[in-house]
């Protein structure tokens, strides 16, 4: 499908952070060491604008990788003024930034509104205070609730970022976190299962045997449940798993459920569960079936089949007393015939 949205990203690694969370090393995750200066930002925006393809109807400038509203106010204004110039000229359509819940208040949001910011992403990570404490986040669940409410009141789009698998987290806590996040009415969520990155406190804890990361399969499982909760509440999941690391910093992933196509793996598991449940229901309502024909919507066939068609093999193994025949077709949802 051709791209309709383009994000022009700028990373401000750790800027605005007054301390370091146990899992975080933005230098490696963004492969960026320095704050972008004015000249660099303008040059990069211009470069992007020159390569925008027909069909793109939404262009955003985004500041990721730190706590934007924790930056010195003059620096915030300097960055926002550049983006705002392009916004006023209708060359871009939005400004997005990420920050922490405890760096949100009337003053910060008033400034963001003045400069036409459209979306605020909040690193909430968990809805459990003990998990936040162990991660040394330095804020509470109540801070997330207050900040989310205020962001919505000011009319910004709200995106919540979550991290299942932090120290002291559990499957149940992650699910509860997803359920509580739904009640904030976010416009989208990002789910980043915790990965152990080099030169973090989590690396030390991991090496001392005090932290055991989720396995890839455990992370897929918990994220599938979270994905289900959000999609069934019409909340878009805009990202699952860290962005693929540049080759130069690939060896900074020490342990944990990192996979360059993590989001695809979760969606494949979600659709495998959906197929399994639908087949079970069909068989319960229709006795004496020897062969089932299952039509899969073409536009989702990669997710339904799974990597290397492993979902098909899985289902044939479970329902091994009947023949399952799969086809892709130009339909909206899956169809099953006996
Ligand atoms: S997670 Fe966010 S607040 Fe914590 S150290 Fe990293 S950038 Fe700073």
What does this entry look like structurally?
This protein is of the alpha/beta class and 338 residues long. Helix content is 40%, strand content 19%. The strands form three sheets. A seven-stranded parallel beta sheet has the order 1-2-3-4-5-6-8. It has a three-stranded mixed beta sheet with strand order 11-10-12, with helices on one face. Helix 7 runs parallel beside helix 9 and helix 9 packs across helix 10. The two termini are 33 Å apart. The structure holds iron/sulfur cluster. The site of iron/sulfur cluster has 10 residues, from loops.
**So, CATH architecture of the largest domain?**
Alpha-Beta Barrel
- CATH class placement of the largest domain: Alpha Beta
CATH superfamily of the largest domain, by name, is Aldolase class I
Q: Spell the H/E element sequence.
A: EHHEHEHEHHEHEEHHEEHEHHEE
CATH domain fold name of the largest domain? TIM Barrel
Strand order of the largest sheet: 1-2-3-4-5-6-8
Task: Please tally the β strands and state the result.
Answer: 12
Instruction: Catalogue the ligands.
Output: iron/sulfur cluster
Describe the sheet with the most strands.
Answer: 7 strands, parallel
Radius of gyration: 22 Å
Strand content: 15-25%
How many domains make up the 3D coordinates?
A: 2
Structural class: alpha/beta
């Amino acid at each position: 499908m051709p791209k309709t949205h383009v994000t022009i990203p700028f990373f401000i690694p750790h800027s605005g952070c007054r301390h370091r969370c146990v899992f975080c090393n933005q230098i490696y995750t963004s492969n960026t060491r320095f704050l972008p200066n004015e000249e660099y930002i303008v040059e990069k925006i211009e470069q992007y604008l020159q390569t925008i393809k027909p069909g793109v109807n939404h262009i955003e400038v985004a500041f990721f990788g730190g706590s934007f509203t924790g930056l010195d106010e003059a620096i915030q204004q300097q960055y926002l003024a550049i983006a705002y110039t392009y916004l006023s000229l209708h060359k871009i359509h939005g400004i997005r930034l990420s920050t922490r819940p405890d760096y949100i208040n009337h003053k910060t949001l008033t400034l963001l509104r003045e400069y036409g910011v459209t979306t605020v992403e909040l690193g909430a990570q968990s809805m459990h205070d003990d998990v936040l404490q162990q991660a040394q986040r330095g804020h509470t669940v109540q801070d997330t609730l207050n900040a989310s409410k205020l962001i919505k009141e000011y009319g910004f789009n709200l995106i919540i970022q979550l991290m299942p698998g932090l120290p002291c987290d559990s499957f149940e806590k992650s699910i509860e976190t997803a359920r509580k996040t739904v009640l904030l009415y976010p416009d989208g969520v990002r789910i980043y299962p915790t990965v152990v990155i080099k030169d973090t406190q989590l690396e030390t804890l991991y090496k001392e045997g005090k932290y055991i990361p989720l396995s890839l399969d455990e992370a897929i499982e918990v994220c599938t449940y979270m994905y289900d909760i959000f999609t069934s509440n019409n909340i878009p999941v805009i990202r699952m798993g860290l962005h693929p690391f540049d080759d130069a910093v690939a060896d900074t992933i020490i342990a944990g459920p990192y996979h360059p196509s993590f989001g695809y793996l979760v969606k494949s598991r979600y659709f495998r569960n959906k197929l399994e449940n639908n087949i079970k229901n069909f068989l319960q309502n229709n006795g004496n079936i020897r062969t089932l024909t299952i039509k899969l919507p073409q536009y989702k066939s990669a997710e339904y089949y799974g990597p290397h068609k492993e979902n098909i093999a899985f289902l044939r193994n479970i329902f091994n007393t009947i023949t399952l025949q799969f086809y892709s077709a130009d339909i909206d949802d899956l169809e099953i015939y006996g």
